[in-house]
Design goal:
Strand content: under 5%
Number of domains: 1
Shape: elongated
Structural class: mainly alpha
Helix content: over 70%
């Protein structure tokens, strides 16, 4: 009985924290939708022709010794701050004796930065339904107690809370899942653009194969699921 009472006390103590966490998670998912819309809007002029022209112009500027001009050309097709920084690093690190390794490291860091950004919504995909389930089960104990005592009002109030939290948790997971899928595609294309620039601006053309776009080999695939792992 002591163990059962302890578990009941823990469950009862988590009631309000779980309710608050569900609301925060739902608000977080809505904010991420707004951020995603802004990211899509910034990329509305993206095209392969613009990328090729920017890389060609950067090559010309590099030949002429205009490093700033090359960075400016690549910045015109960079859609985020990390992408701009990586594009600039490709140009500035090009004269280095170990340019291949340095640029490859910058590409890897850029890839990991994108993955870290994706993790924010991937966490919500699982955390939303989990919080919703906790918020469903926790009020059931007092609801059943109210039913046993014939207190219909307490039963009704607790069931309303339980079902409301369930809906909020599932909605959070669904929104986060959609954001993760779309953002995964966007970031994978960003990484492909950066790799294309790195391959074409490689200091030695025989090193270009080191930077051939290989997005599939990187961690951009959104391995998220609304069900069990």
């Amino acid at each position: 009985m002591q163990i059962e009472n302890f578990l009941f006390s823990v469950s009862d103590a988590l009631r309000w924290p779980v309710l608050v966490a569900v609301l925060l998670a739902l608000a977080w998912s809505v904010i991420e939708i707004g951020i995603l819309l802004a990211e899509i809007w910034r990329r509305r002029w993206r095209s392969i022709n613009a990328l090729e022209n920017a890389v060609d112009q950067a090559e010309i500027d590099i030949v002429q010794g205009d490093q700033l001009g090359a960075i400016a050309a690549l910045s015109s097709v960079a859609w985020s701050r990390p992408m701009r920084e990586t594009m600039a690093a490709i140009v500035t690190l090009r004269p280095s004796p170990d340019a291949e390794n340095r640029i490859a490291k910058r590409l890897a860091d850029y890839d990991y930065n994108s993955l870290r950004r994706l993790e924010r919504t991937r966490i919500l995909v699982r955390m939303g339904p989990a919080l919703g389930l906790m918020g469903t089960l926790i009020p059931l104990a007092p609801a059943l107690a109210g039913l046993a005592d014939g207190n219909v009002t307490e039963l009704t109030d607790n069931l309303r809370v339980a079902f409301g939290v369930t809906v909020a948790g599932l909605l959070t997971g669904a929104l986060a899942f959609g954001v993760s899928l779309i953002r995964d595609r966007i970031y994978a294309q960003d990484f492909s653009d950066v790799e294309f620039a790195a391959a074409n601006l490689a200091p030695d053309k025989h090193l270009a194969q080191h930077f051939v776009p290989s997005t599939v080999e990187h961690g951009h695939s959104t391995q998220v699921s609304m069900g069990n792992p």
